[in-house]
């Protein structure tokens, strides 16, 4: 069973794709046509990739049901997405969010504070080992994952350039 939002997304994508491709047999649509349509009609790489994934899903279903034999979307390259967005909470946003977390889920407040002051994701926080915590130096030592290096902002010190590279995050006095 699909989530309601996913179902709505699929229906809207289907309606949008029906105009350029709906009157033609699915087997006649080429990867070049699909790529051209994505390039022309999608403003961002993320949108293009979501449409490509939807078309690929439709073809996979068609293949499993014996309606088509090839999936042209498989031959369309994924576009590189730049989802990097450097954003900081204002003091008012922090205060109201902190108050809401304390009221609704106080057990998650410490994780919220750590994420705000270090930029650490939840998975990084919960996988942290004591050997990575340096109380004397007031730093946390992490291993870089595939992610946006600017996520940690200027607090990160040296930003890792490759996956697996170790780097330290200064621990604020608040922690």
Compact overview of the structure:
By secondary structure, this protein is mainly alpha-helical.
| H-E string | HHHHHHEEE
The order of strands across the largest sheet is 1-2-3
Which spans have pLDDT < 50 for at least 5 consecutive residues? 146-159
Principal-axis shape equals elongated
The N- to C-terminal Cα distance equals 43 Å
Describe the structure.
- With 175 residues, the chain is mainly alpha-helical.
- Helices cover 45% and strands 7% of the residues.
- The chain has 2 domains: 4-75, no CATH class; 91-170, no CATH class.
- The protein contains 6 helices and 3 strands, in the order ααααααβββ.
- Strands 1-2-3 form a 3-stranded antiparallel sheet, with no helix packed on it.
- β1 (133-134) and β2 (139-143) form a beta hairpin.
- The chain is elongated.
- The two termini are 43 Å apart.
- Mean pLDDT is 83; it is low at 146-159.
């Amino acid at each position: 069973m699909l989530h309601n939002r996913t179902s709505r997304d699929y229906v809207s994508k289907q309606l949008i794709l029906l105009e350029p491709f709906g009157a033609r047999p699915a087997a006649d649509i080429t990867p070049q046509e699909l790529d051209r349509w994505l390039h022309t009609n999608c403003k961002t790489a993320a949108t293009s990739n979501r449409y490509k994934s939807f078309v690929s899903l439709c073809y996979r279903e068609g293949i499993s049901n014996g309606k088509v034999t090839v999936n042209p979307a498989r031959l369309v390259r994924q576009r590189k997405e730049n989802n990097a967005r450097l954003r900081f909470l204002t003091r008012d946003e922090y205060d109201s969010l902190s108050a809401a977390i304390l009221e609704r889920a106080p057990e998650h407040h410490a994780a919220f504070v750590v994420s705000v002051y270090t930029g650490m994701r939840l998975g990084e926080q919960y996988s942290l080992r004591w050997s990575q915590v340096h109380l004397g130096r007031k730093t946390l030592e992490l291993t870089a994952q595939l992610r946006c290096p600017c996520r940690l902002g200027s607090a990160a010190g040296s930003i890792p350039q490759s996956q697996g590279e170790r780097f330290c995050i200064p621990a604020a006095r608040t922690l």
